[in-house]
Amino acid sequence: MKLPLIGCAIGALVIATPALAQTPSQDDLAALVRAQAAEIAALKARLDRLEGTAATAPATIAATPQTTPATPAPERLAQVTPPPVITQPFAPQLVPPGPAERDITRARSAEASGVTTEWGAGLPVFHSADGIYTFKPRGRILTDVSSTMGSRYNGRNTTTTGMRALRLGLEGGVGNHFFYQFESDFSENEVDIVTAFIGWRNRIGKGIDYDVRAGHLFNDRGFEGSTGSDSTPFLERTVVSTAILPQRGFYGIGIMPRLFWKTGHASLTVTGDRVDGNQGGNDSRTLLARAHWNPIKDDRRVLHVGLWGFDEGLSATAGTLTRNTVIGGRFNGALRVSTGALLGGTGTTGYGAELGGYVGPVWVMGEAGERHARLDGSRPDFVSKAWSLSGGWFLTGDLPPYNPRLGSFGQPRVLKPIFDGGPGAIELTARYENLDYSSLLTGGRGWAATVGANWYLNSFTRIQINAIHWDTDNRAGAYIGPDNGETVSARVAVTF
């Protein structure tokens, strides 16, 4: 659009310049070039202003007569509408902007629409302008390495690595009542749907509210059994959590109403099998209940008391009760406490208790549980017993990440993250745990003592190390008889 007009202007200047009728000198040519350059610059500036007017007021320009004199004067050029020649495949307002322009445009659009974004644990939370819709991506990356030594069986003295969790998911809500969550885990070379539910929450009265969730639900069972894998103070949950549980494991499809008050909560869960369970027959049925109470609760102190129990009716296709329970690290498959092969189960009943709390940066928690597995025929029940005592101390003065609403551990609130120039939060931990399957002739037993350290770089990033002395006595399997040794494990974890 600009080039034809500028060319006409140059032609007019050449014709009208008397110096061209004679042979020009070098000085004349230099002066002429400078004059023409000045005229071209002036015309270009006026054309830029003209096009700016066309972009902001197309109706006015369209009404301008489409006439152009043969030799337009500069003043006349400012009133002439350029011909409608399109030299690019996009309208000017649709031309893809550069990276910086794109970011600015999106930011202005978000601001204009009223959408707000807040950054929490590593990822943004989006809120609609009217406050009705919320959305947040979520996930966790837990990477472990483990080395076992000292066993009298060479097959147990191994060094292994693994992804304890590799999750991606989302959560959100509509209004004040409806909410949802979905997560899928990709660890151990498998795709596994974990949490997946919709829910409704409301308030009953002052200080009392409830929610009801339906879908693929995580157990509310025990202190560490109700704590997510990204929030446990040790690399693996206690044997109370891993052994005294329904046969279906930590998840099941069903419904869970929960009631909350100022000093505690209670839940009731009715579920069938896991989301990827056997679809060839009836589901097993599990009824589970838990309640916790904080008789002491202030800014620096909490006393925690909890009770839980479950009853499970097994389907005909789920009669296998064999257990091989972690005792010295998740990723050493040879290091387990085993029941031996156990078939013919018809149901299980389990129960447990929790007692603990914290004062300032020091916490302690004791758990115990028992599980009775009912066998067909005249055989007596298979009884599993487990207990543990755990504790921790935050050297940096941070408070333990206790969640008084759910009676479990969550993500810590680090007072001085390293990304702000602080030391992060440093915690020392210790635990003793004991597991007994010996009510069976083929059942084993085991115990483990663990010392560890956790370094929380900020509220969602941490490094953990555990040193475990373990002792087992299995009566079945590849590693029979008394055995003991040490396992050292470490983890790098990010939760968002």
UniProtKB/TrEMBL annotation:
Keywords: Signal. It comes from Sphingomonas pseudosanguinis. It holds the Pfam family Porin_O_P. This is Phosphate-selective porin OprO/OprP. InterPro entries: Porin_dom_sf (IPR023614), Porin_O/P (IPR010870). Residues 1-21 form the signal peptide. It comes from the Bacteria. Transmembrane segments: none annotated.
